[in-house]
Amino acid sequence: MVLQLLNVNLTLGTFRLNSVTLNVDQQEYLIIIGRTASGKTTLLKTIAGAYRPSSGKILIDGSDITTAPPEKRNVAYVSQIFSSFDPMNVKDNIEFGLRSRGMPKPERKQLVNEIVRDLGIEHLLDRMPATLSGGEQQRVSLARALVTSPKILLLDEPLSMIDPETKRSIIRLLKAIPEKYNIPVVHVTHEWDEAYTLASLIAVIHQGRIIEVGDPEQIFNEPGNYHTAKLVGFYDMHKGIATLTDSGSTIKLENGLELKSRMKIGGSVYACVRPERVKLNTSNEFNNLEGRVVDVFREKFGFRIIININTIEFTALVGSKPTRGDVITVTVPEDSVYVIPTTEI
Amino acid sequence: MLVGTPFAYLLARSDFKFKEFIDAIIDIPIMIPHVIVGIMVVLAFSSTYGLGPFLQGIGINLIDTLIGAIITVTYLSATYSIRVVESSIKMIDPDVELTARTLGSTPTFTFIHVIVPRIWKSIANGAILTWARAVAEVGALLVVAYYVYFNGNDVYPASIYIYEGYIALGLAGAVKYSAALLVIVLATFIIYRLVLRHV
Asked: HSE of B180 in the Cβ direction (CA atoms, 13 Å)?
């Protein structure tokens, strides 16, 4: 285990990191995902050494670094804003960490040459960071971090300031890091797509607490928690009472509407539905819902529509554009109604 | 520069007990007439009050001495330097420092190689403003160092000498010294701006 967080607590003003426990293996790509102000960046900076936990331990390779200053941790932090060291050029930026450690110039030169070749940025060495594009700045930040051979790479929303086309190439680069450099990566984001694409392990953080840890497929398909489900794309989560049936359960929603699910969970629950699983104009034995279209939004693959069904709104992704006010029937297949007990909040 | 820059960094980056109190003390020269600051200095350091007897016991006298005049105008003028540098440090995202630190850089190395290159113009601006403010100081010096006994001579701060000239000889006596001081200050500022433009 390269990185271990054991019951880490931290109070910053009114915000609190609450008993955070995490384990990160060599070559793991851990993504900590959470909404804005959930504490993901605070957690990352606590690992980096910006904040000292009030209790708990942080171990790297078994050594307790809880109170060690950032420069003694051998982790490399790459911030969301790239954090170029102006007015140094790219070469000086990349060799900064080596220079601060007192490495002789010939060795520095050799390591810088290797890393810039690896990341395809040899041509940028004499440029000033301010003249670089977002993608180039991100590569320079990564080179500056990786050249110091850190034990862990910490990435704070590394794709948030990059255009979609560049993002694709940076994603390939990031995904290769754990294996190529034999280090774990801890990356925080609020973007589910990013997490699903890159992670080998996902930790969901909510209000300073890690509420769920699992592999991407598990978190995506079977979120164990209301907040996780919201993050991974369940747009509609309606409260109701579930009664067990032979084939699963029937959930009576607060407006009297009944939904059938294949999941055998009874009691007070949330019936969770992904918009892409809601079908238009299909006839099914159960879960056919008639309602009025109240909003239509263009999406990459069609239209996202909001349908008001007896005061409760459902979202669907459809190929053809309906008009606001249309009365339509949608079907939610029983195996697409995911049920979470209301106790799992 | 030597006192104000580290102090500005501390104020910009740290939260500590009594920070608001220290902030207010730094702003005193802006808030009250400087003659009152002079009286405070005399109360604190004259031979009969405050720390004065103790300092005199170890051979330090701050009233009507060069060191006393320097300390007084440094305190009165440093506000400008501290505030200018503090604002420019606050404009640097703390993530930049954290990034440098995790790469292995100590706080001092980070300050010298990452922070100073970004704020040196503010340090220079603060320094010249502080110098100009010190040159212009009258109120506190009237009380603390009306004349300074230095190297066997009585030395007057320029502003007090001009004031003396005006009182003793009238406008004609004060104009030539005023003009000389004006030329020196103006020339210094023009040269400073020209140098800054080419750096």
From this structure: 9
